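Ticket #110: bound-state structure for guanosine-5'-triphosphate.
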Amino acid sequence: MNQEIPKFTVVGRGNKGKSSIVSALAEDDSVVIEKGAGTTENCCEFPVRVDDKVQIILIDTPGFNEAPEVLGWMRAMRFRLRTAARWWQSLCGILIKAINLATSAGCSSQ
Ligand SMILES: Nc1nc2c(ncn2[C@@H]2O[C@H](COP(=O)(O)OP(=O)(O)OP(=O)(O)O)[C@@H](O)[C@H]2O)c(=O)[nH]1
Ligand SMILES: [Mg+2]
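RESOLUTION: The complex was predicted; output attached.
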Protein backbone atom coordinates (compact mmCIF):
# COMPACT_ATOMS: atom_id res chain seq x y z
CA MET A 1 0.00 0.00 0.00
CA ASN A 2 1.33 3.43 -0.92
CA GLN A 3 1.17 5.40 2.32
CA GLU A 4 1.95 9.10 2.11
CA ILE A 5 4.45 10.37 4.63
CA PRO A 6 3.01 13.32 6.57
CA LYS A 7 4.86 16.60 6.26
CA PHE A 8 5.00 19.23 8.99
CA THR A 9 6.20 22.74 8.32
CA VAL A 10 7.98 24.51 11.14
CA VAL A 11 7.22 28.23 11.00
CA GLY A 12 7.87 31.11 13.35
CA ARG A 13 9.81 34.26 13.95
CA GLY A 14 13.53 34.40 13.24
CA ASN A 15 16.07 33.03 15.70
CA LYS A 16 13.48 31.25 17.83
CA GLY A 17 14.88 27.74 17.52
CA LYS A 18 12.98 26.31 14.51
CA SER A 19 16.09 24.74 13.00
CA SER A 20 17.20 23.50 16.42
CA ILE A 21 13.95 21.57 16.84
CA VAL A 22 14.17 20.18 13.30
CA SER A 23 17.80 19.16 13.84
CA ALA A 24 17.01 17.43 17.14
CA LEU A 25 13.96 15.53 15.87
CA ALA A 26 15.56 14.55 12.57
CA GLU A 27 18.85 13.76 14.35
CA ASP A 28 20.56 15.69 11.58
CA ASP A 29 23.60 17.84 12.35
CA SER A 30 23.62 19.29 8.82
CA VAL A 31 20.78 21.65 9.80
CA VAL A 32 22.40 25.08 10.15
CA ILE A 33 21.86 26.68 13.57
CA GLU A 34 23.35 30.03 14.49
CA LYS A 35 22.99 32.77 17.06
CA GLY A 36 21.73 35.49 14.70
CA ALA A 37 18.38 35.76 12.90
CA GLY A 38 18.16 35.03 9.18
CA THR A 39 20.20 31.83 9.29
CA THR A 40 17.77 29.68 7.34
CA GLU A 41 17.23 31.15 3.88
CA ASN A 42 15.36 28.35 2.09
CA CYS A 43 12.72 25.78 2.94
CA CYS A 44 14.36 22.38 3.39
CA GLU A 45 12.89 18.96 4.11
CA PHE A 46 14.36 16.67 6.77
CA PRO A 47 13.04 13.15 7.27
CA VAL A 48 12.45 11.87 10.78
CA ARG A 49 13.27 8.18 10.94
CA VAL A 50 12.25 5.61 13.52
CA ASP A 51 13.81 2.16 13.11
CA ASP A 52 15.21 3.26 9.73
CA LYS A 53 11.73 4.02 8.44
CA VAL A 54 10.77 7.59 7.59
CA GLN A 55 7.76 8.44 9.75
CA ILE A 56 7.36 12.15 9.09
CA ILE A 57 9.10 14.90 7.13
CA LEU A 58 9.84 18.22 8.79
CA ILE A 59 10.19 21.32 6.68
CA ASP A 60 12.49 23.96 8.12
CA THR A 61 11.63 27.48 6.96
CA PRO A 62 13.19 30.96 7.11
CA GLY A 63 12.09 33.17 10.01
CA PHE A 64 8.87 35.08 9.47
CA ASN A 65 8.97 38.35 11.40
CA GLU A 66 6.29 40.48 9.79
CA ALA A 67 3.39 38.11 10.45
CA PRO A 68 0.89 40.81 11.63
CA GLU A 69 1.72 43.05 8.63
CA VAL A 70 1.40 40.18 6.14
CA LEU A 71 -1.87 39.07 7.73
CA GLY A 72 -3.19 42.65 7.44
CA TRP A 73 -2.17 42.79 3.78
CA MET A 74 -3.89 39.45 3.07
CA ARG A 75 -7.08 40.63 4.77
CA ALA A 76 -7.05 43.86 2.73
CA MET A 77 -6.47 41.91 -0.47
CA ARG A 78 -9.27 39.49 0.38
CA PHE A 79 -11.67 42.44 0.72
CA ARG A 80 -10.50 43.90 -2.61
CA LEU A 81 -10.75 40.53 -4.37
CA ARG A 82 -14.26 39.99 -3.01
CA THR A 83 -15.30 43.45 -4.22
CA ALA A 84 -13.77 42.78 -7.66
CA ALA A 85 -15.54 39.39 -7.84
CA ARG A 86 -18.92 41.01 -7.04
CA TRP A 87 -18.31 43.72 -9.66
CA TRP A 88 -17.38 41.05 -12.24
CA GLN A 89 -20.46 38.98 -11.35
CA SER A 90 -22.71 42.04 -11.89
CA LEU A 91 -21.04 42.80 -15.22
CA CYS A 92 -21.51 39.19 -16.37
CA GLY A 93 -25.17 39.35 -15.30
CA ILE A 94 -25.70 42.51 -17.37
CA LEU A 95 -23.91 40.97 -20.36
CA ILE A 96 -26.01 37.80 -20.18
CA LYS A 97 -29.21 39.87 -20.00
CA ALA A 98 -28.05 41.95 -22.98
CA ILE A 99 -27.21 38.82 -24.98
CA ASN A 100 -30.58 37.23 -24.09
CA LEU A 101 -32.37 40.42 -25.11
CA ALA A 102 -30.46 40.63 -28.41
CA THR A 103 -31.06 36.94 -29.12
CA SER A 104 -34.79 37.07 -28.40
CA ALA A 105 -35.07 40.29 -30.43
CA GLY A 106 -33.37 38.44 -33.29
CA CYS A 107 -35.84 35.52 -32.94
CA SER A 108 -38.95 37.69 -32.89
CA SER A 109 -37.94 39.53 -36.05
CA GLN A 110 -37.74 36.26 -38.03
N1 LIG B 1 18.31 28.93 25.36
C1 LIG B 1 17.90 28.24 24.30
N2 LIG B 1 18.44 28.56 23.13
C2 LIG B 1 18.02 27.85 22.08
C3 LIG B 1 17.05 26.83 22.15
N3 LIG B 1 16.83 26.34 20.91
C4 LIG B 1 17.65 27.03 20.10
N4 LIG B 1 18.38 27.93 20.79
C5 LIG B 1 19.38 28.86 20.23
O1 LIG B 1 18.69 29.86 19.49
C6 LIG B 1 19.55 30.31 18.40
C7 LIG B 1 18.78 30.25 17.10
O2 LIG B 1 18.47 28.91 16.80
P1 LIG B 1 17.96 28.46 15.35
O3 LIG B 1 17.48 27.06 15.51
O4 LIG B 1 18.99 28.72 14.32
O5 LIG B 1 16.73 29.46 15.15
P2 LIG B 1 15.79 29.62 13.87
O6 LIG B 1 14.41 29.91 14.37
O7 LIG B 1 15.92 28.46 12.95
O8 LIG B 1 16.39 30.93 13.20
P3 LIG B 1 16.22 31.46 11.68
O9 LIG B 1 16.65 30.36 10.77
O10 LIG B 1 17.14 32.62 11.61
O11 LIG B 1 14.80 31.84 11.52
C8 LIG B 1 20.76 29.42 18.41
O12 LIG B 1 21.82 30.12 19.01
C9 LIG B 1 20.33 28.23 19.24
O13 LIG B 1 21.43 27.60 19.88
C10 LIG B 1 16.49 26.53 23.43
O14 LIG B 1 15.64 25.68 23.59
N5 LIG B 1 16.97 27.28 24.47
MG1 LIG C 1 16.60 28.34 10.97
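RESOLUTION NOTES: The chain has a mean pLDDT of 89.
TICKET STATUS: resolved
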